[in-house]
Amino acid sequence: MNTTKEMLGVRIKELRKQCGISQDQLAERIDIDPKHVSRIEVGRSYPSLDTLEKIAMALNVELKDFFEFFHGRHEEELRGEIGEMLKNVSKDKLEIIYKVVRAIAR
Questions:
Q1: Using DSSP, how many helices (H) and how many strands (E) does the chain show?
Q2: Exposed/middle/buried for residue 70 (C-beta within 10 Å: 0-12, 13-18, 19+)
Q3: Does residue 37 sit in the same domain as residue 59?
Q4: pLDDT tens, 48-84?
Q5: In a 10 Å sphere around its CB, with 0-12 CB exposed, 13-18 middle and 19+ buried, how is residue 29 labelled?
Q6: For the chain, how many structural domains are there in total?
Q7: Which of 64, 54, 65 has its CA nearest to residue 27?
Q8: Which helix (H) or strand (E) holds 18?
Q9: Is 65 in contact with 15 (CB distance < 8 Å)?
Q10: CATH number, domain with residue 41
Q11: Inter-CA distances, 80 with 50, 55, 84, 104, Å
Q12: What pTM did the predictor assign?
């Protein structure tokens, strides 16, 4: 399981690449050392809130976008995680979940 720090770093890297800019370019835009950008993206360092806000502005995204960790998961991984979550759910809750899933799957 990845740590929040690692998932945050991966997400920042994804968003940076979507913008088509390098780590060096991002570092220059937000006035930090390129090595610090690298450490953030590999999950070795947390950015400060100030740095996170600057990254968001440089990438033209909202802060909340950094914490959308589950958008790029593979189908098998999602199915496995859903199965794990459902293992200890009561029958009453399973019936509700079933109705919701059935409505979405239509």
A1: 6, 0
A2: exposed
A3: yes
A4: 999 999 999 999 999 999 988 765 667 888 888 889 8
A5: middle
A6: 2
A7: 54
A8: helix 4-18
A9: yes
A10: 1.10.260.40
A11: 36, 33, 6, 19
A12: 0.66
